[in-house]
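INPUT
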Amino acid sequence: MKGGSDEMVAKKNNLITRLNRIEGQIRGIKGLIERDTYCDDVLNQIAAIQAALNGVGKLLLEDHMRSCVVERIESGDHAVIDELLVTVKKLMK
Amino acid sequence: MKGGSDEMVAKKNNLITRLNRIEGQIRGIKGLIERDTYCDDVLNQIAAIQAALNGVGKLLLEDHMRSCVVERIESGDHAVIDELLVTVKKLMK
Amino acid sequence: MKGGSDEMVAKKNNLITRLNRIEGQIRGIKGLIERDTYCDDVLNQIAAIQAALNGVGKLLLEDHMRSCVVERIESGDHAVIDELLVTVKKLMK
Amino acid sequence: MKGGSDEMVAKKNNLITRLNRIEGQIRGIKGLIERDTYCDDVLNQIAAIQAALNGVGKLLLEDHMRSCVVERIESGDHAVIDELLVTVKKLMK
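OUTPUT
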């Protein structure tokens, strides 16, 4: 993700805001565990964090594919496809 | 998760240690994004955190099913199955 | 899943109907591939089948947990929890 | 997937073989359910089919990205990225 344009700065701030929230949720879970909170409640928090993290991943993937992937393919650098496939397969079910 | 027994304390410490690591990884990703790191590298970090978070979820689910779920079923409280199903379905693909 | 009661028969028929549909979708995909259909269309069919298969899995898991799992725990056979954990972890993300 | 080259034919045959196997597994599960087989065994079969179906999806995605996606980007048709993102997000966790 290249800095500079307002749009890029807005995207970065959005991602940082989401990650701050996730970081807070992780700290929250630690507190729940330290206080012996009922496990089912903690598991539901984990499911919520997974969903939030997936959201960040999808935003990043989208930005990556619309910028770097297109640019590298257009410049004849097809190795980006190999790299992208490895990453996408890790994010797939 | 009930406190008290050495085993329970060890389990809690294991979960807290894992969550501390995940918290650090989340902070790490924020730094990568702030420094405009290549997206593919960030995406791979996200996949690693998802795997680590899944690991915490599986440990918690295991402990929950071996303790609270068994105890509540044995005491005739089958509502725990409804509750568990809702949670497990959120964690399923 | 025990046979006999109307409810059980209805559940079985529901599962068989869903699996028949999935079987037809699989055959459909084979036809798409044989006719060199645009891959993106085929991938979307695969995502649809995954969702349908998840639906069958969740129905089965629900029925299993409400019947066999409860019965075996109530009869003191806690080995069912070990078995269930192995299976649920395969179905988790 | 374009037909014609030996490599393409081999890829198609590989996919068809895998899908034939999955189709057989689906029929197998129907039989297990009809015979009131223990649910846990059926659930494990479903997990195996999910893994096999994911395998087919990953092969197709790989071939799609190396052929159509590259060709359309190189010809200036960036709409393929929008399309690919929709599909990949369905296949993601």
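end of record. The radius of gyration of chain C is 17 Å.
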